[in-house]
Predict the structure.
Amino acid sequence: MNLIDQITSTYKEKFGHAPAHIVRAPGRVNLLGEHVDYNDGFVLPAAIDRATYIAFSPTDAPHSTLVAADFDQQASFSAETIATKTQPDSSALPEWALYPAGVMWALKEEGISTSSINAVFASDVPRGSGLSSSASVEMAFAIAWQTLGGWTLPAMQRALLGQKAENKYVGVNCGIMDQFASACGVENKLLLLDCRSLEWKTVPLPDHVAIVIADTTVRRKLTSGEYNKRRDACEEAVRLLKNDLPKIKSLRDVSVADFNRLANTLPDEVEKRARHVVEEIGRSNQAEALLEAGDIQSFGRLMNECHASLRDLYEVSCPELNVMVNIAQPLKGCYGARLTGAGFGGCTVNLVAKNDVEAFAKALAAGYEAETGLRPEIYISHASNGAELLG
Ligand code: ADP
Ligand code: MG
C-alpha cells in the first residue's frame, strides 16, 4: 500500500470519515554549496521524490489533533495555547509535534489565521539522515493550513516561516535551504539559491542523469556542537579579514585571490574552515554555466572537489562517508560523489548516468557493506516539485 492509501485509511479509522484533502511536501538533497548557507553563499539543492504526506480535514474542535502514523502517536494543540508547547491535558507536546505546532505558531506570529485540523501524516523521507524530513513536515503543514485558511503565501514566505518555526519554536539552528527546497522544488530541475538575497532560479539537469542518494546509516550525536564551532570559525575569519578588507560582511565577499593573499594572517584552523567556504562559493559560482551548457563531467568534478574540501578543510566527514564516496567515484557512469548535508554521517549524493544506475547502486551497496559491515540504503531519485495540494 502506498503512503497516501495508508494515511487515508488510518484517517478513516481514526476520524470516521474520509479526509477532505491530501498534501505532499518533499525532502531535499544538496548537490553543491555545502556549509555556505550561513555565509551568504549559493546553494544548489533539489527537492526529491520522497516526501511527507498529510490526510486532513478542518474540524470545529478548539484544538488540532495530529496522528504521526510513522510513530503510531497522537498529539493535540490549539492556537490559544501554542506558545506553551502543551496539549489540552497540559502534558508536553512530543518532539515530533513541535514541527507542525511550530508552523502554526509562526503563522500566528505573522497574524495569519489557522483553523483547527484533524490530520494523519506519514513520510518516506528518512529521518535524521540529512534529507530534511523536518522541513518536509513543516512545508506540508504550511500547505495544509493555507488550504483551509483562504490565504495564499508565496512559497518563499512559507519557507521562511518554516525556518522560523524550526529556529525559534523547535530550537534547531538551521539555514533557509531545507525549507526553500521543499517549498520551491521544480520537477527535473536543480534550484540555485542566493542565500543573501534569497533570489533563486532553476538550473537544468540533463535527462540522462540520475540523482543517487546513499545513506551510510551512520548517525553521529553531538553534531550541533561541531556545527556551531564551524559557524564560529567563519565569523572569526570575517572579523580578522576585516582588518585588510573592511567592507566585507561575510565570507561571501572574499574572493579566492584576496583570501590567498591574506590566508597567513589567520590561525591555522580558522584558515582551513574559511578556505573551504571561500572556495566552495567559488565552485558554486561556476556551477550555473556548466549545467546550462550540459557539462555534467565538469560539474561532477566540482562535487568531488567539494567532498575533499569538506573532508580535509572543513573536517565534517567521517570514515563511513569517505568509504561511500571513495567506492562511488571510480564506478562506471558516476560523474561526481560527495557527502551531502551537515556531515558526520548521513548521506552521500551521486550524479550517475541513467544507463549505469542499477549496476552503480548494486556495486556501491556491496562495496560499502564489504568494507564497513553496514548495509546502506540507496535511493535512485530525481528532482521533484515542491510542496503541493494533491486534492
Ligand atoms: P532531518 O535531517 O531528517 O531533517 P531533523 O533532526 O532535522 O532531521 O528532523 C527529524 C525530526 O523531524 C524527527 O525527529 C521528528 O521529530 C520530525 N519528523 C521527521 N519526519 C517525521 C515523520 N514522518 N513523522 C513525525 N515526525 C517526523
Ligand atoms: Mg532537519
